[in-house]
Structure formats: C-alpha cells, structure tokens
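Raw record, unedited: Lytic transglycosylase
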Amino acid sequence: MRYILLLLCVCSASALANLQSTSMSHSDYLKQVRVQAQAAGIGSKGQQALSQVKRFRSVSVNQAAEEVSSPESLDQYLALEVDFNKVTRARDYFNRREALFHRIQQAYSVPGRFLVARWALETDFGQGQGDFPALSVLVAKGAEEPQNEFWSKQILAALALIDQGKVPLERLRSNRHGQMGPLLMSPEQLLNYGVDFDEDGKLDVWNSEADAYATLANELKQQGWQADRTWGRQVTLTAPVEPQHFNLGLLQSMTEWQQAGVRRWDGRDLPKVDDLSAGLLVPDGVEGRIYLAYPNYRLLMRSDSSHYQTLSIGYLADRIKFQ
C-alpha cells in the first residue's frame, strides 16, 4: 500500500512537471508574441497595445459536484435544450427585430432565424460575455499552452484589429476564454468577417446587434451558405438502407435518395431538386430521428459541436419560422 501511494505521488509530480514544462512565463511568451507580430507585419499601434498587456490570472471554475445525466436520445436533448420557453423567447426576440434581420438577409442571404437560433443555443441568449481585457486573456491562455497555435492566431488577429483601427484596445473585451460580444466571437472572426452594419463608423459587436448579427451572417455567406436552401429536413425510411449510406460524407441528390426509399417525415415524396446534394444523418440509429443534412448544415456545425447541438439549431430555427 505504501509503495502504491509513493508511486501515485511520483506519477502526480511527474505529470505536474510535464504540465509546467509545456507552459511559458508571461514575459517569455510576450517576447515570443512580439517576434511573431513583427513577422506578421503588425505596426506601431499593435505593438504599443502589446506593451499594455497586463498579467491575467486564469481561474479554474470548479464544476458542481452534482452529476447531470446526459440525454439518452435526440428527442430527450431537444426537449431539454429547446423547450417551449426557449422557443417562445427566441421567437419573440426575432419578431421584435424582424426589420433588422430582413436587412441582414438582403445583404448576406442568410435568414435571421438561423442567427437567432445559434445565438440562443450556443450562448444561452448572450450569457457568459465577460468584461475582461481580451488581449491580456489571450496572452495568458497562450502562455499556458504555447504549443497551441490557436492562441497565437487569436492574439495576432486581435493585434491586427487594433493596428488597422477597426477596434481600439479598450473596446476589446472578452470572457475568460477570449470570446467576445453576445455571440462569443473570436478575434479571428472579427478580423475576417467583421461588419459595421449600422454604419456608425466603428465595428462594435459588443453593443451593436446590427454589427454582431451581420458579422455572423457575413461569415456564413463567405463560407458558402446557400441562399435558397435550408439546413436539412427530417425524413423517414420506407425501405432498408445500406449502412454505408449513414454517412454525411456520402452525398446524393434528392432523386437518388428518393430511389433509395427516403421520404419526408410525413411520408410524402422528397422535393424534386436535382441540384441539391445531401447526406443521411442518423444520430440515434435508424430507430431514432433521421435527417437529410444539406450543405448549410455543415456551416452551422462548429468544429467542437455535436450533431445533437447542430440539429437543435436547425430545429429551433424552424420553430421560429413556423409560428
């Protein structure tokens, strides 16, 4: 027993040493960032912003000890995450800003219901924004994980925003993860897709709903959003389908899926749209809900999202539309 305890202590110490060896001191990491910024062509404004970076202490938030059971099916997940109250709240929010979302759709061809659904579900109606100095947060994160290129990319993007005069340092506020505004955007998103949609002369996704939603719509459009398509549809199978077809990477036309025995969820024929390809999605197997996922589905799905999460966005967007 004593040997086991000693071994555990040695292993724990070794793990801690390995963790510490992969991190860098705040000052050393800042020096590294300065070199990267110079190589990236960041000018005097961005370099000056680096000199104002303060040490930010990351705080690990202990999760509640109480275990929350995970939903066992998509039906349970939707009932939990997209309940009546959330649908009502999202629908009311959309209706009160319908004129704004109409203008955004005219400009970027992305319906506002998808923007609201993503905001409502991914951020819980804008919770968790935080009001920390974003650049300091990002530098602290980068120093903890210097081998993770994600943080250096976000830091350089933040410096570029400042250097190009798009966002002043004092407005660059984030939560403890470096995510900014009610839509929890990254500096890279703002740099690549940021829009001053209300035309007040500044990019402000923190205080301007117009700028925030237009930026998200611009991102989806630039990534290939199909203006005349939705995200997908729930379907049913009228004939056995080969297992290899349950693969989002296997794209087929509506005609091909129709011939394979796929129908709308109410049994009607699929739309006769031959220039639309889709993949078959069965998150709970053939006994659960079955979907045809269109190309727009992949754009709604973030790299760290599950199919349950992405399907809930499409589901809520449909609930907003069909009032």
